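Support request from a user on the community tier.

User writes: "When I paste my structure tokens into the form, the page sometimes reloads and wipes my input. The last time it worked, I copied everything first. Here is what I submitted, just in case something in the input itself triggers the reload:"
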């Protein structure tokens, strides 16, 4: 990974264009969700009307569980940086 744009992931060509993956021992594992979604079902499950666009990563965690999504080292960074994510956290789902 040589450019920060390498972290941008559409998940459409996972092994080719996407540098994100489950940690080898991640359980539960992150899954790939796709659109279009059933808007009414999505709202009832998440409490949010903001739908994802395209493919997205999703993990279902029970109380006390954690799961790790990893990437290759970011070589284009020479000092401190901040990596931000857009995510949705509900009592049942993190999207």
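"...and here is what came back when it finally went through:"
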């Amino acid at each position: 990974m040589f450019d920060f744009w390498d972290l941008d992931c559409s998940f459409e060509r996972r092994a080719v264009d996407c540098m994100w993956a489950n940690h080898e021992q991640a359980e539960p594992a992150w899954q790939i969700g796709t659109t279009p979604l059933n808007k009414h079902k999505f709202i009832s499950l998440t409490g949010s009307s903001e739908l994802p666009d395209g493919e997205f990563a999703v993990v279902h965690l029970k109380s006390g569980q954690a799961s790790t999504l990893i990437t290759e080292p970011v070589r284009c960074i020479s000092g401190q940086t901040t990596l931000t994510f857009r995510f949705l956290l509900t009592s049942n789902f993190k999207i």
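Agent notes: The reload is a front-end session timeout and is unrelated to the input. Residues 4-71 form one domain. The chain has one domain: 4-71. Escalated to web team.
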